[in-house]
Amino acid sequence: MSKDTYVIQIPDIIYDENTKICYKKGRFFGKGGFAKCYEITNMANNQSFAGKIVPKKLIVKDNHKEKMTQEIHIHQSLKHKNVVGFYSFFEDTFNIYIVLELCRKRSMMELQKRRKLLTEPETRFYMKQILQGVSYLHHRRIIHRDLKLGNLFLDDELQVKIGDFGLAATIEYEGERKETLCGTPNYIAPEILHKKGHSFEVDIWSIGCIMYTLLSGRPPFESSSLKETYSRIKKCQYKITGNISASAKQMIMTMLQPDPKSRPNVNQLMVHDFLVNGYCPTSLPVSCLTMAPRFD
Ligand code: ADP
């Protein structure tokens, strides 16, 4: 066996020594950078969670450790209906285990892949929740820095839960601009590419990209190469096409402005004409994951 070959060991029964809780490992949900995610059930009371399991063998570099610690440190301090609940974390010889709120309906990425386009009422339904979650984060001085459809998880009621704080950062003092970001955010803002210093406005840019994608069926700066995509982002070169209302277009355009200072903050977005003056369902049936609803 070469030194790079390893066997990842995840036991069927996971034991948290600190709390003496035994979890039974259930179905596999998905795989991230280092993590594998399973449904885990507390054997004492049958409560189910998402168990994010990271093999220690994979986090060898100092910056990986640092990122993991930062992710846990930030996520642990959060409690909001639109943020994935963080319950506990622990480790054994082989792995680090993070116990999270279970989001059974996967993420908005699978939803968008399946549906391509969402209706405007559905977009309002999801955007309001995304903004409530981000408003909470920004008030706590946390920038998520990688808001994308795949990090917007959905529970059984199709409530949005913001997750994956692997690239998140805390603003330590009023007016601080972050200079570095280790990683590649999906909907990366131009000021990050220009390495000019960045702050909360990068999340607003990403939310603009998310809203564009939900209503157009594809991301605003999509191209066949990352280099070309980055060049389009720097030039803010995108078009809004398709059957999209004037107020939705305007809302996207305010978020996708090259100058971060020109973008609205999350509180201003929450009262945007598109969200306030248009039909927004109070709940959506799960059939909306696969079929467009009819609002009549
Ligand atoms: P990474 O930080 O390594 O990218 P993610 O947080 O993206 O890991 O999680 C990897 C996968 O695990 C996701 O794509 C998703 O399928 C699943 N997952 C993560 N968190 C949850 C959750 N709270 N509920 C259900 N599935 C989840």
UniProtKB/TrEMBL annotation:
Section of the entire sequence shown: 1 to 296 of 568
Keyword Kinase assigned: yes
Domain Protein kinase: 23-275
Protein name: polo kinase
Keywords: ATP-binding, Cytoplasm, Kinase, Nucleotide-binding, Repeat, Serine/threonine-protein kinase, Transferase
Lineage: Eukaryota, Metazoa, Ecdysozoa, Arthropoda, Hexapoda
Lineage: superkingdom: Eukaryota
Organism (species): Zophobas morio
Annotated GO MF terms: ATP binding; protein serine/threonine kinase activity
Subcellular location: Cytoplasm
Known EC number: 2.7.11.21
GO cellular component: centrosome; cytoplasm; kinetochore; nucleus; spindle pole
Reaction(s) catalysed by this chain's protein: L-threonyl-[protein] + ATP = O-phospho-L-threonyl-[protein] + ADP + H(+); L-seryl-[protein] + ATP = O-phospho-L-seryl-[protein] + ADP + H(+)
Chief location bin: cytoplasm
GO biological process per UniProt: mitotic spindle organization
